[in-house]
Protein backbone atom coordinates (compact mmCIF):
# COMPACT_ATOMS: atom_id res chain seq x y z
CA UNK A 1 0.00 0.00 0.00
CA UNK A 2 2.79 2.41 0.85
CA UNK A 3 4.45 1.76 -2.52
CA UNK A 4 1.16 2.43 -4.31
CA UNK A 5 0.73 5.71 -2.48
CA UNK A 6 4.27 6.74 -3.38
CA UNK A 7 3.63 5.77 -7.00
CA UNK A 8 0.42 7.82 -7.06
CA UNK A 9 2.20 10.81 -5.51
CA UNK A 10 4.99 10.48 -8.08
CA UNK A 11 2.48 10.34 -10.95
CA UNK A 12 0.62 13.34 -9.54
CA UNK A 13 3.87 15.27 -9.23
CA UNK A 14 4.91 14.40 -12.77
CA UNK A 15 1.47 15.35 -14.09
CA UNK A 16 1.63 18.72 -12.33
CA UNK A 17 5.12 19.33 -13.69
CA UNK A 18 4.39 18.27 -17.24
CA UNK A 19 0.99 19.95 -17.58
CA UNK A 20 1.37 23.56 -18.76
CA UNK A 21 0.18 26.10 -16.25
CA UNK A 22 -1.11 28.85 -18.53
CA UNK A 23 -4.08 28.80 -20.88
CA UNK A 24 -1.78 30.02 -23.64
CA UNK A 25 0.58 27.07 -23.21
CA UNK A 26 -2.27 24.56 -22.93
CA UNK A 27 -3.93 25.92 -26.07
CA UNK A 28 -0.65 25.74 -27.97
CA UNK A 29 0.03 22.21 -26.75
CA UNK A 30 -3.49 21.09 -27.65
CA UNK A 31 -3.26 22.62 -31.15
CA UNK A 32 0.15 21.05 -31.75
CA UNK A 33 -1.06 17.66 -30.53
CA UNK A 34 -4.10 17.71 -32.81
CA UNK A 35 -2.06 18.89 -35.82
CA UNK A 36 0.69 16.33 -35.11
CA UNK A 37 -1.81 13.46 -35.02
CA UNK A 38 -3.50 14.75 -38.17
CA UNK A 39 -0.14 15.09 -39.96
CA UNK A 40 0.94 11.61 -38.92
CA UNK A 41 -2.30 10.03 -40.13
CA UNK A 42 -2.23 12.07 -43.36
CA UNK A 43 1.43 11.21 -44.03
CA UNK A 44 0.89 7.49 -43.54
CA UNK A 45 -2.19 7.61 -45.75
CA UNK A 46 -0.30 9.56 -48.42
CA UNK A 47 2.64 7.14 -48.44
CA UNK A 48 0.29 4.15 -48.59
CA UNK A 49 -1.68 5.62 -51.49
CA UNK A 50 1.52 6.60 -53.32
CA UNK A 51 2.98 3.12 -52.88
CA UNK A 52 -0.23 1.46 -54.06
CA UNK A 53 -0.47 3.79 -57.07
CA UNK A 54 3.16 3.30 -58.20
CA UNK A 55 3.06 -0.46 -57.79
CA UNK A 56 -0.28 -0.62 -59.55
CA UNK A 57 1.20 1.15 -62.55
CA UNK A 58 4.22 -1.17 -62.55
CA UNK A 59 1.96 -4.20 -62.33
CA UNK A 60 -0.17 -2.93 -65.22
CA UNK A 61 2.93 -2.36 -67.34
CA UNK A 62 4.40 -5.81 -66.56
CA UNK A 63 1.06 -7.56 -67.10
CA UNK A 64 0.64 -5.84 -70.42
CA UNK A 65 4.05 -7.16 -71.53
CA UNK A 66 3.17 -10.64 -70.24
CA UNK A 67 -0.13 -10.60 -72.14
CA UNK A 68 1.70 -9.77 -75.39
CA UNK A 69 4.11 -12.68 -74.85
CA UNK A 70 1.20 -14.95 -73.87
CA UNK A 71 -0.55 -14.30 -77.19
CA UNK A 72 2.64 -15.21 -79.08
CA UNK A 73 3.07 -18.38 -77.02
CA UNK A 74 -0.49 -19.52 -77.46
CA UNK A 75 -0.19 -18.98 -81.23
CA UNK A 76 3.07 -20.97 -81.46
CA UNK A 77 4.93 -17.90 -82.70
CA UNK A 78 7.16 -17.49 -79.67
CA UNK A 79 10.84 -17.19 -80.56
CA UNK A 80 13.89 -17.60 -78.37
CA UNK A 81 14.25 -13.84 -77.86
CA UNK A 82 11.30 -11.78 -76.70
CA UNK A 83 11.25 -8.01 -77.30
CA UNK A 84 10.90 -5.79 -74.20
CA UNK A 85 8.25 -3.10 -73.95
CA UNK A 86 8.43 0.22 -72.08
CA UNK A 87 8.50 -0.06 -68.31
CA UNK A 88 9.62 -3.71 -68.27
CA UNK A 89 13.12 -4.87 -67.23
CA UNK A 90 13.00 -8.51 -68.34
CA UNK A 91 10.76 -11.28 -69.62
CA UNK A 92 11.40 -14.99 -69.13
CA UNK A 93 9.23 -17.90 -70.30
CA UNK A 94 9.67 -21.21 -68.44
CA UNK A 95 7.99 -24.50 -69.41
CA UNK A 96 6.67 -27.16 -67.09
CA UNK A 97 10.10 -28.88 -66.91
CA UNK A 98 11.76 -25.73 -65.57
CA UNK A 99 13.50 -24.95 -68.85
CA UNK A 100 13.72 -21.45 -70.28
CA UNK A 101 12.04 -21.52 -73.69
CA UNK A 102 12.19 -17.77 -74.35
CA UNK A 103 13.66 -14.69 -72.75
CA UNK A 104 14.35 -11.02 -73.33
CA UNK A 105 17.75 -10.07 -74.71
CA UNK A 106 19.19 -9.02 -71.36
CA UNK A 107 18.54 -12.37 -69.65
CA UNK A 108 19.23 -14.78 -72.54
CA UNK A 109 21.24 -17.75 -71.28
CA UNK A 110 20.34 -17.11 -67.67
CA UNK A 111 18.88 -19.88 -65.51
CA UNK A 112 15.16 -20.14 -65.00
CA UNK A 113 13.68 -17.93 -62.30
CA UNK A 114 12.10 -21.05 -60.86
CA UNK A 115 9.47 -19.38 -58.66
CA UNK A 116 5.86 -20.26 -58.25
CA UNK A 117 3.56 -18.27 -56.08
CA UNK A 118 1.24 -15.28 -56.16
CA UNK A 119 0.66 -13.48 -59.45
CA UNK A 120 2.72 -10.51 -58.21
CA UNK A 121 5.94 -10.84 -56.21
CA UNK A 122 8.65 -8.43 -55.09
CA UNK A 123 12.37 -9.18 -54.97
CA UNK A 124 15.20 -7.16 -53.56
CA UNK A 125 17.33 -8.28 -56.53
CA UNK A 126 17.68 -11.16 -59.02
CA UNK A 127 21.38 -12.04 -59.05
CA UNK A 128 20.90 -15.28 -61.10
CA UNK A 129 19.50 -13.12 -63.85
CA UNK A 130 22.18 -10.46 -63.45
CA UNK A 131 19.65 -7.87 -62.18
CA UNK A 132 20.60 -6.15 -58.95
CA UNK A 133 17.78 -3.64 -58.60
CA UNK A 134 14.56 -4.40 -56.77
CA UNK A 135 11.97 -5.97 -59.03
CA UNK A 136 8.24 -6.50 -59.07
CA UNK A 137 7.60 -9.73 -60.95
CA UNK A 138 4.23 -10.58 -62.52
CA UNK A 139 3.62 -14.30 -63.15
CA UNK A 140 1.19 -15.40 -65.88
CA UNK A 141 0.45 -19.08 -66.70
CA UNK A 142 -0.80 -19.86 -70.23
CA UNK A 143 -1.38 -23.00 -72.33
CA UNK A 144 0.70 -23.41 -75.49
CA UNK A 145 0.79 -26.14 -78.16
CA UNK A 146 3.82 -27.56 -76.34
CA UNK A 147 2.21 -27.44 -72.89
CA UNK A 148 1.79 -24.88 -70.13
CA UNK A 149 4.40 -22.20 -69.61
CA UNK A 150 4.94 -19.52 -66.98
CA UNK A 151 5.71 -16.01 -68.15
CA UNK A 152 7.75 -13.96 -65.68
CA UNK A 153 7.61 -10.24 -66.44
CA UNK A 154 9.66 -7.98 -64.21
CA UNK A 155 9.55 -4.20 -63.67
CA UNK A 156 12.12 -2.21 -61.72
CA UNK A 157 11.04 -0.73 -58.37
CA UNK A 158 13.87 1.83 -58.35
CA UNK A 159 11.76 4.74 -59.55
CA UNK A 160 8.91 3.84 -57.22
CA UNK A 161 11.28 3.45 -54.27
CA UNK A 162 12.96 6.75 -55.09
CA UNK A 163 9.58 8.50 -55.28
CA UNK A 164 8.52 7.00 -51.97
CA UNK A 165 11.82 7.95 -50.34
CA UNK A 166 11.61 11.52 -51.64
CA UNK A 167 8.04 11.87 -50.45
CA UNK A 168 8.90 10.42 -47.04
CA UNK A 169 11.88 12.76 -46.72
CA UNK A 170 9.74 15.73 -47.70
CA UNK A 171 7.16 14.79 -45.10
CA UNK A 172 9.83 14.15 -42.51
CA UNK A 173 11.21 17.65 -42.98
CA UNK A 174 7.96 19.46 -43.80
CA UNK A 175 5.78 18.12 -41.02
CA UNK A 176 7.98 19.36 -38.15
CA UNK A 177 8.28 22.73 -39.88
CA UNK A 178 4.52 22.88 -40.30
CA UNK A 179 4.06 21.81 -36.68
CA UNK A 180 6.48 24.51 -35.55
CA UNK A 181 4.59 27.06 -37.62
CA UNK A 182 1.31 25.98 -36.04
CA UNK A 183 2.87 26.29 -32.58
CA UNK A 184 4.21 29.77 -33.27
CA UNK A 185 0.97 30.99 -34.84
CA UNK A 186 -1.13 29.50 -32.03
CA UNK A 187 1.16 31.00 -29.40
CA UNK A 188 0.99 34.44 -31.01
CA UNK A 189 -2.74 34.36 -31.72
CA UNK A 190 -3.58 33.00 -28.25
CA UNK A 191 -1.34 35.58 -26.63
CA UNK A 192 -2.98 38.39 -28.58
CA UNK A 193 -6.44 37.02 -27.79
CA UNK A 194 -5.64 36.67 -24.07
CA UNK A 195 -3.94 40.04 -23.77
CA UNK A 196 -7.24 41.79 -22.94
CA UNK A 197 -7.95 39.10 -20.35
CA UNK A 198 -4.63 39.83 -18.67
CA UNK A 199 -5.42 43.55 -18.77
CA UNK A 200 -8.80 42.82 -17.15
CA UNK A 201 -7.16 40.62 -14.51
CA UNK A 202 -4.52 43.23 -13.70
CA UNK A 203 -7.10 45.98 -13.37
CA UNK A 204 -9.38 43.87 -11.17
CA UNK A 205 -6.40 42.90 -8.98
CA UNK A 206 -5.53 46.58 -8.58
CA UNK A 207 -9.04 47.65 -7.55
CA UNK A 208 -9.28 48.02 -3.80
CA UNK A 209 -12.18 48.67 -1.45
CA UNK A 210 -11.81 52.42 -1.90
CA UNK A 211 -11.32 52.26 -5.68
CA UNK A 212 -14.60 50.72 -6.84
CA UNK A 213 -15.02 53.64 -9.24
CA UNK A 214 -12.33 52.15 -11.51
CA UNK A 215 -13.37 50.03 -14.47
CA UNK A 216 -11.65 47.38 -16.59
CA UNK A 217 -10.73 48.23 -20.20
CA UNK A 218 -13.21 47.08 -22.83
CA UNK A 219 -11.52 45.75 -26.00
CA UNK A 220 -12.88 46.54 -29.41
CA UNK A 221 -15.27 44.14 -31.08
CA UNK A 222 -18.14 42.07 -29.75
CA UNK A 223 -16.54 38.76 -28.83
CA UNK A 224 -16.59 36.79 -25.59
CA UNK A 225 -13.79 38.83 -24.00
CA UNK A 226 -15.59 42.10 -24.76
CA UNK A 227 -18.74 40.72 -23.17
CA UNK A 228 -16.66 39.54 -20.19
CA UNK A 229 -15.26 43.06 -19.75
CA UNK A 230 -18.75 44.57 -19.90
CA UNK A 231 -20.00 42.02 -17.40
CA UNK A 232 -17.10 42.83 -15.07
CA UNK A 233 -17.82 46.54 -15.35
CA UNK A 234 -21.50 45.87 -14.66
CA UNK A 235 -20.51 43.92 -11.55
CA UNK A 236 -18.22 46.75 -10.45
CA UNK A 237 -21.08 49.21 -11.01
CA UNK A 238 -23.28 47.16 -8.72
CA UNK A 239 -20.53 46.83 -6.10
CA UNK A 240 -19.85 50.57 -6.28
CA UNK A 241 -23.54 51.33 -5.93
CA UNK A 242 -23.88 48.89 -3.03
CA UNK A 243 -20.84 50.42 -1.34
CA UNK A 244 -22.15 53.96 -1.75
CA UNK A 245 -25.57 52.90 -0.50
CA UNK A 246 -23.99 51.23 2.50
CA UNK A 247 -21.91 54.30 3.31
CA UNK A 248 -24.93 56.55 2.87
CA UNK A 249 -26.99 54.22 5.03
CA UNK A 250 -24.39 54.29 7.80
CA UNK A 251 -24.14 58.08 7.58
CA UNK A 252 -27.93 58.48 7.67
CA UNK A 253 -28.27 56.02 10.54
CA UNK A 254 -25.56 57.83 12.48
CA UNK A 255 -27.30 61.12 11.87
CA UNK A 256 -30.67 59.73 12.91
CA UNK A 257 -29.23 58.22 16.09
CA UNK A 258 -27.11 61.23 17.07
CA UNK A 259 -29.99 63.64 17.68
CA UNK A 260 -32.22 61.45 19.89
CA UNK A 261 -29.21 60.20 21.82
CA UNK A 262 -28.09 63.79 22.45
CA UNK A 263 -31.60 64.79 23.53
CA UNK A 264 -31.89 61.72 25.75
CA UNK A 265 -28.56 62.46 27.41
CA UNK A 266 -29.51 66.10 27.97
CA UNK A 267 -32.82 65.13 29.54
CA UNK A 268 -31.15 62.64 31.84
CA UNK A 269 -28.41 65.06 32.86
CA UNK A 270 -30.96 67.77 33.64
CA UNK A 271 -33.16 65.29 35.52
CA UNK A 272 -30.23 64.17 37.66
CA UNK A 273 -29.38 67.73 38.73
CA UNK A 274 -32.85 69.30 38.93
CA UNK A 275 -34.17 69.82 42.46
CA UNK A 276 -37.91 69.78 41.58
CA UNK A 277 -39.28 66.20 41.61
CA UNK A 278 -42.15 67.13 39.29
CA UNK A 279 -39.86 68.52 36.63
CA UNK A 280 -37.53 65.58 37.12
CA UNK A 281 -40.43 63.14 36.52
CA UNK A 282 -41.42 64.97 33.32
CA UNK A 283 -37.83 64.81 32.09
CA UNK A 284 -37.60 61.10 32.83
CA UNK A 285 -40.93 60.52 31.03
CA UNK A 286 -39.62 62.38 27.97
CA UNK A 287 -36.40 60.37 28.15
CA UNK A 288 -38.46 57.16 28.15
CA UNK A 289 -40.29 58.32 25.03
CA UNK A 290 -37.00 59.06 23.30
CA UNK A 291 -35.67 55.68 24.39
CA UNK A 292 -38.71 54.02 22.82
CA UNK A 293 -38.04 55.91 19.59
CA UNK A 294 -34.42 54.77 19.68
CA UNK A 295 -35.55 51.21 20.29
CA UNK A 296 -37.95 51.37 17.33
CA UNK A 297 -35.25 52.89 15.12
CA UNK A 298 -32.76 50.17 16.13
CA UNK A 299 -35.38 47.50 15.39
CA UNK A 300 -35.96 49.03 11.93
CA UNK A 301 -32.23 49.10 11.24
CA UNK A 302 -31.86 45.46 12.26
CA UNK A 303 -34.85 44.53 10.10
CA UNK A 304 -33.31 46.35 7.12
CA UNK A 305 -30.07 44.45 7.68
CA UNK A 306 -32.02 41.18 7.55
CA UNK A 307 -33.76 42.30 4.38
CA UNK A 308 -30.46 43.26 2.76
CA UNK A 309 -29.04 39.85 3.64
CA UNK A 310 -32.15 38.26 2.12
CA UNK A 311 -33.71 34.89 2.98
CA UNK A 312 -31.97 31.70 1.80
CA UNK A 313 -34.94 31.18 -0.53
CA UNK A 314 -38.23 32.86 -1.29
CA UNK A 315 -40.78 31.92 1.43
CA UNK A 316 -43.67 29.78 0.20
CA UNK A 317 -46.07 29.55 3.18
CA UNK A 318 -49.65 30.38 2.09
CA UNK A 319 -50.58 33.68 3.75
CA UNK A 320 -54.09 35.15 3.70
CA UNK A 321 -53.42 38.86 3.13
CA UNK A 322 -56.98 39.83 4.11
CA UNK A 323 -56.48 38.12 7.46
CA UNK A 324 -53.27 40.10 8.03
CA UNK A 325 -55.16 43.33 7.30
CA UNK A 326 -57.94 42.40 9.75
CA UNK A 327 -55.37 41.69 12.47
CA UNK A 328 -53.51 44.96 11.84
CA UNK A 329 -56.76 46.96 11.66
CA UNK A 330 -57.86 46.16 15.24
CA UNK A 331 -58.08 49.38 17.24
CA UNK A 332 -57.83 51.56 14.10
CA UNK A 333 -60.55 53.53 12.39
CA UNK A 334 -60.31 52.14 8.87
CA UNK A 335 -62.66 51.40 5.98
CA UNK A 336 -62.07 47.84 4.81
CA UNK A 337 -62.97 46.06 1.57
CA UNK A 338 -61.40 42.62 1.80
CA UNK A 339 -61.79 39.78 -0.68
CA UNK A 340 -61.81 36.15 0.38
CA UNK A 341 -59.08 33.69 -0.60
CA UNK A 342 -56.56 36.45 -1.29
CA UNK A 343 -53.66 34.10 -0.53
CA UNK A 344 -50.03 34.83 -1.41
CA UNK A 345 -46.96 32.68 -0.70
CA UNK A 346 -44.70 34.41 1.77
CA UNK A 347 -43.30 34.97 5.25
CA UNK A 348 -46.08 35.79 7.73
CA UNK A 349 -44.11 38.14 9.99
CA UNK A 350 -42.62 40.01 7.05
CA UNK A 351 -45.95 40.47 5.25
CA UNK A 352 -47.54 41.54 8.53
CA UNK A 353 -44.79 44.17 8.82
CA UNK A 354 -45.55 45.36 5.27
CA UNK A 355 -49.25 45.79 6.11
CA UNK A 356 -48.52 47.52 9.43
CA UNK A 357 -46.06 49.97 7.86
CA UNK A 358 -48.54 50.92 5.12
CA UNK A 359 -51.34 51.45 7.67
CA UNK A 360 -49.09 53.48 9.98
CA UNK A 361 -47.99 55.67 7.09
CA UNK A 362 -51.60 56.17 5.93
CA UNK A 363 -52.81 57.13 9.44
CA UNK A 364 -49.90 59.51 9.89
CA UNK A 365 -50.76 61.49 6.75
CA UNK A 366 -54.58 61.12 6.58
CA UNK A 367 -56.90 64.02 7.34
CA UNK A 368 -59.95 62.00 8.33
CA UNK A 369 -60.14 58.55 6.72
CA UNK A 370 -58.09 55.58 5.51
CA UNK A 371 -59.49 53.00 3.08
CA UNK A 372 -57.90 49.55 2.76
CA UNK A 373 -58.83 47.06 0.03
CA UNK A 374 -57.61 43.54 -0.76
CA UNK A 375 -58.52 41.86 -4.06
CA UNK A 376 -57.15 39.39 -6.58
CA UNK A 377 -56.23 40.35 -10.11
CA UNK A 378 -57.03 37.32 -12.26
CA UNK A 379 -55.40 38.88 -15.33
CA UNK A 380 -51.98 38.94 -13.66
CA UNK A 381 -52.71 36.25 -11.02
CA UNK A 382 -51.73 38.59 -8.20
CA UNK A 383 -53.03 39.63 -4.80
CA UNK A 384 -53.47 43.40 -4.69
CA UNK A 385 -53.38 45.39 -1.42
CA UNK A 386 -54.48 49.04 -1.74
CA UNK A 387 -54.13 51.59 1.08
CA UNK A 388 -55.58 55.07 0.48
CA UNK A 389 -55.46 58.12 2.75
CA UNK A 390 -57.26 61.43 2.16
CA UNK A 391 -54.26 63.55 3.06
CA UNK A 392 -52.13 65.62 0.76
CA UNK A 393 -51.45 64.19 -2.67
CA UNK A 394 -47.92 63.14 -3.57
CA UNK A 395 -46.18 65.02 -6.35
CA UNK A 396 -45.00 62.77 -9.22
CA UNK A 397 -41.39 63.65 -8.42
CA UNK A 398 -41.82 62.37 -4.85
CA UNK A 399 -43.47 59.04 -5.66
CA UNK A 400 -40.13 57.23 -5.84
CA UNK A 401 -38.21 59.42 -3.42
CA UNK A 402 -40.40 58.43 -0.50
CA UNK A 403 -39.15 54.85 -0.83
CA UNK A 404 -35.55 55.94 -0.20
CA UNK A 405 -34.29 55.26 3.29
CA UNK A 406 -34.49 58.10 5.84
CA UNK A 407 -36.50 60.25 3.43
CA UNK A 408 -39.23 62.42 4.99
CA UNK A 409 -41.18 64.89 2.90
CA UNK A 410 -42.44 66.72 6.01
CA UNK A 411 -39.46 66.40 8.31
CA UNK A 412 -40.78 68.21 11.34
CA UNK A 413 -44.16 66.45 11.38
CA UNK A 414 -42.52 63.05 10.88
CA UNK A 415 -40.15 63.61 13.77
CA UNK A 416 -42.97 64.65 16.07
CA UNK A 417 -44.90 61.52 15.08
CA UNK A 418 -41.87 59.35 15.67
CA UNK A 419 -41.17 58.47 12.04
CA UNK A 420 -37.62 57.89 10.83
CA UNK A 421 -38.24 57.52 7.11
CA UNK A 422 -37.80 53.74 7.13
CA UNK A 423 -41.36 52.41 7.07
CA UNK A 424 -42.02 52.67 3.33
CA UNK A 425 -38.51 51.49 2.28
CA UNK A 426 -38.95 48.45 4.53
CA UNK A 427 -42.38 47.74 3.02
CA UNK A 428 -41.05 47.96 -0.54
CA UNK A 429 -38.08 45.69 0.27
CA UNK A 430 -40.47 43.13 1.76
CA UNK A 431 -42.62 43.24 -1.40
CA UNK A 432 -39.53 42.77 -3.59
CA UNK A 433 -38.33 39.82 -1.52
CA UNK A 434 -41.71 38.18 -2.15
CA UNK A 435 -41.48 38.75 -5.90
CA UNK A 436 -43.95 41.65 -5.80
CA UNK A 437 -44.03 45.43 -6.08
CA UNK A 438 -45.04 48.45 -4.02
CA UNK A 439 -45.85 51.69 -5.84
CA UNK A 440 -47.85 54.90 -5.56
CA UNK A 441 -50.75 54.87 -8.03
CA UNK A 442 -52.87 57.69 -9.36
CA UNK A 443 -55.96 58.68 -7.35
CA UNK A 444 -58.42 61.60 -7.53
CA UNK A 445 -57.33 62.85 -4.11
CA UNK A 446 -54.95 61.93 -1.34
CA UNK A 447 -52.32 59.22 -1.75
CA UNK A 448 -52.84 55.59 -2.73
CA UNK A 449 -50.26 52.86 -2.19
CA UNK A 450 -50.64 49.57 -4.08
CA UNK A 451 -48.77 46.39 -3.18
CA UNK A 452 -48.91 43.50 -5.64
CA UNK A 453 -47.86 40.01 -4.59
CA UNK A 454 -47.85 36.76 -6.61
CA UNK A 455 -50.94 34.71 -5.89
CA UNK A 456 -50.56 31.31 -4.26
CA UNK A 457 -50.81 28.70 -7.08
CA UNK A 458 -52.54 26.28 -4.69
CA UNK A 459 -55.52 28.62 -4.32
CA UNK A 460 -58.13 26.86 -6.42
CA UNK A 461 -61.38 28.79 -6.05
CA UNK A 462 -61.98 32.30 -7.35
CA UNK A 463 -62.21 35.08 -4.78
CA UNK A 464 -65.61 35.99 -3.53
CA UNK A 465 -66.97 39.53 -3.23
CA UNK A 466 -65.46 42.00 -0.79
CA UNK A 467 -66.49 42.21 2.83
CA UNK A 468 -67.66 45.41 4.31
Q: Can you offer a commentary on this structure?
A:
This protein is α+β, with helices and mostly antiparallel strands. The chain folds into three domains: 206 residues, no CATH class; 84 residues; 144 residues, Histidine kinase-like ATPase, C-terminal domain (Heat Shock Protein 90, 2-Layer Sandwich). The protein has nine helices and 13 strands. It has a six-stranded mixed β-sheet. Strands 8-10-11-13-12 form a five-stranded mixed β-sheet. The longest helix has 52 residues. The two termini are 82 Å apart.
Write the layout of secondary structure elements.
Blueprint: H1 2-18, H2 23-74, E1 81-82, E2 90-95, E3 100-104, E4 120-123, E5 135-144, E6 147-156, H3 158-206, H4 224-273, H5 277-309, E7 317-320, H6 321-329, E8 335-338, E9 343-346, H7 348-365, E10 370-377, E11 382-389, H8 411-416, H9 423-433, E12 437-441, E13 447-454
Helix pairs in contact: 2-3, 4-5, 5-9, 6-7, 7-9
